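Data card: per-record layout.
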Amino acid sequence: VGGGCGLADGNGVDTVYHPYVQPLERDLEIRLTHAHADSLLDGQTWRAGYGQSLSDRLFAEAYLIAQGHDMGSLDVSGYEVETLWQLTEQGQYAADWAVLGAFEHAHHGDSRSGSLMLIGERQWGRLVGTLNASVSYEWGPGVHDEPETRLTLQSRYRYSPRLEPAVEFFAAENLRALGPALMGTERLAPGRRLHWEAGFAVGLDHASPDLALRGKLEYEF
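The structure for this 221-residue chain is written out next.
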């Protein structure tokens, strides 16, 4: 499933969620985001997670989060739990919908973050449009206790299961970024797939990171 919108994701450029749950699915995931800017956002965030479906409409995933700066060593920065609830059957309405809740706890200190995301997706032939709109709230020592909103839009062309090009737009409090992405899925055996994603986004204003990179590798079984 993939994602995250908490303490570690200062740059706001990350994977795009889709509103579907596969019954009996389990996955192992590694995800990287990297932002280059003359600020505290400069650095990389790694996520390693395990997830599984709890029913035909409910999927849960837990992550270990690590961060590094200036190509130095990685340090564990937090833990995250996410739950995705598929609201509609695929194709039931003009668009498919889901909601995702996430809770993140910092490894050091008592900082916490909770978020709620609305996920929508619609298809026009081979073209797929995806919406991620979320609101999050952080609290704890040294954290400004105020809600933050994020918006991610993706337009993806289903050229083949192995290759799908996309254009993505990211918006948050100090972020306006746009860029391309590529993704694909390799079927390894019945019920086993390897999914990959790679993309970058360029900041559209002075408050945004100059360049943000994202990548994901997910093994589904």
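Known properties of this structure: Residues 2-6 have pLDDT under 50 and may be disordered. The chain has no helices and twelve strands.

See the next section for split statistics.
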